[in-house]
């Protein structure tokens, strides 16, 4: 039965979903529906009894070529799949009887199969499930220590190995990839990690996890460190950033032992009126770093994506890499700054933009370089030094230092902001910024695009304050340089002025409205800001 959105406003529907972010539990079955629609969690005291489990013998060959193992009620299949793009195969669980079935779990995501004809899935002498490439190389194997006696692909998509007593000794739900299914748990040691690209299931840079410090919320993070979205704290009934969780829903959410290292979160299905089963659903951390929920609409045979966070894809940290600009209005959200190109065309075509962009020309540090207008931008990951001066002075100082990659200049106030390092998280200013400074990027003389010539104008929003120093991935510091230090800056010796302790540090976020607290000091580093010009 398809999900009836009319039963609840779409906004509530979506927001409520937002809350569902995470499951975690012990390695036991938590699916609402077994073959007989009876909830029977598997525990050491509650072994699985099923006529659909496959008895295993040593050296049993389970899958070769295009053969598959079907799950209970034929909801899921286990088999070798090729996501496309390259001649690589993976042992995966995917939906059955659905056109272009999504893959929900991958065993060997970091070690693809390159020759399917000589590869098979079998049970080893130790009772482990293993992918073997003939004549005997092990590509992947399960981690169970007790010998498996039977195998079962459950109706909820969980692949389990059972002991002689019918107890679960290994299960795929303990090793999730990018997809969260009903009954699957997320814990402090178990998270969802995106695919690298739409054709490459190897681990990407975006993940969903329980906050490792307070165990009180779920967060989306970039490269295991930079948080860019969260649910807010758990209040006992819901996350404070997801109040809609308290509204009756077709799924039930469970948070066990919150605020402790053993915290776990999962969701189960509720029966609909008349004992009907809810539609198939799944959450996914996709290749561009958004958490999305999909529900299968049987009548129209398509996956309805009705909720995602962050709602603006350009708020995903590092999505477009260095020198890539995010525009949430585009189908493909990332484009390179004018004068730059993708580091890997293949990756960009596959939906992986995190490698960013590089200059079209290798010759990028000559005093004959010029500056090309990019537009109004907002960014992170670079050092920025500001002072009062004419546009020509601003450019001359930048050209005297190979570390200077561009500048802002305000013609009304004569405020110059020279930029050092690389630009990360470039994004359209119209999405979340009120700044209106125009970015000019340093380019070789022959690469300059004059006004009136067709070019890509990329919009973002800039950083305010007198002097701003941005450590990569760190919070910004603002610095004010008194008049007697201005000449040092004009001479290009930026680092010397900073290291002398003549600057005034202004605490606070670089892009916020906080005035900050003033104190004297010097930053620990400005990267290569003092590098001599060629």
UniProtKB/TrEMBL annotation:
Signal peptide annotation: 1-27
Enumerate the spans annotated as Bulb-type lectin domain.
53-174
Q: Which UniProt keywords apply?
A: Disulfide bond, Glycoprotein, Signal
Pfam families xref list:
B_lectin, S_locus_glycop
Instruction: List the InterPro entries.
Output: Bulb-type_lectin_dom (IPR001480), Bulb-type_lectin_dom_sf (IPR036426), S_locus_glycoprot_dom (IPR000858)
- Gene Ontology terms: biological process: recognition of pollen
The organism's place on the tree of life at top rank: Eukaryota
Tell me what this protein is called. Bulb-type lectin domain-containing protein
């Amino acid at each position: 039965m398809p999900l009836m959105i009319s039963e609840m406003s779409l906004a509530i529907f979506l927001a409520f979903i937002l809350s569902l972010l995470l499951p975690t539990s012990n390695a036991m079955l938590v699916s609402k529906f077994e073959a007989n629609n009876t909830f029977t969690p598997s525990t050491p005291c509650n072994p699985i009894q099923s006529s659909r489990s496959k008895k295993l013998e040593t050296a049993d060959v389970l899958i070769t070529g295009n053969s598959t193992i079907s799950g209970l009620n034929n909801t899921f299949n286990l088999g070798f799949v090729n996501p496309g793009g390259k001649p690589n195969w993976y042992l995966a669980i995917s939906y059955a009887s659905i056109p272009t079935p999504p893959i929900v779990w991958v065993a060997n995501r970091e070690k693809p199969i390159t020759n399917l004809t000589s590869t098979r899935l079998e049970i080893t002498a130790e009772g482990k499930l293993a992918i073997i490439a003939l004549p005997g190389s092990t590509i992947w194997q399960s981690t169970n220590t007790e010998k498996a006696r039977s195998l079962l692909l459950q109706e909820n998509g969980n692949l389990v190995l059972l002991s002689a007593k019918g107890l679960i000794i290994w299960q795929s739900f303990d090793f999730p990839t990018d997809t969260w299914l009903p009954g699957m748990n997320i814990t402090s040691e178990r998270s969802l990690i995106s695919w690298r690209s739409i054709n490459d299931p190897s681990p990407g840079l975006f993940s969903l996890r329980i906050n490792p410090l307070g165990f009180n919320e779920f967060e989306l993070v970039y490269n295991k460190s930079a948080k860019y979205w969260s649910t807010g704290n758990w209040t006992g009934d819901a996350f404070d950033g997801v109040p809609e969780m308290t509204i009756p829903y077709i799924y039930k959410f469970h948070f066990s032992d919150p605020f402790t290292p053993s915290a776990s979160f999962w969701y189960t299905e509720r029966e609909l009126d008349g004992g009907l089963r809810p539609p198939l659903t799944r959450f996914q951390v996709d290749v561009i770093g958004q958490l999305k929920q999909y529900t299968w609409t049987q009548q129209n045979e398509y996956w309805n994506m009705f909720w995602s966070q962050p709602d603006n894809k350009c708020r995903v940290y590092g999505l477009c890499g260095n020198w890539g600009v995010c525009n949430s209005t585009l189908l493909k959200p990332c484009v390179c700054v004018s004068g730059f190109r993708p580091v890997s065309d293949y990756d960009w075509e596959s939906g992986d933009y995190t490698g960013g962009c590089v200059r079209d020309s290798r010759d990028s540090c000559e005093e004959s370089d010029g500056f090309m207008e990019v537009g109004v931008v907002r960014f992170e990951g670079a050092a920025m030094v500001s002072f009062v001066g004419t546009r020509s002075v601003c450019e001359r100082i930048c050209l005297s230092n190979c570390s200077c990659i561009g500048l802002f200049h305000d013609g009304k106030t004569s405020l110059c902001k020279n930029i050092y390092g690389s630009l990360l998280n470039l994004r359209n200013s119209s999405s979340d910024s009120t700044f209106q400074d125009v970015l000019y990027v340093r380019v070789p003389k022959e690469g300059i695009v004059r006004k009136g010539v067709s070019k890509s104008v990329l919009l973002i929003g800039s950083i305010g304050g007198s002097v701003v120093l941005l450590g990569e991935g760190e919070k910004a510091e603002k610095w004010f340089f008194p008049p007697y230090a201005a000449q040092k800056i004009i001479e290009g010796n930026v680092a010397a002025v900073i290291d002398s302790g003549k600057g005034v540090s202004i605490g606070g976020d670089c892009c916020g409205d906080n005035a900050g607290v003033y104190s004297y000091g010097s930053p620990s580093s400005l990267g290569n800001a003092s590098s001599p010009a060629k």
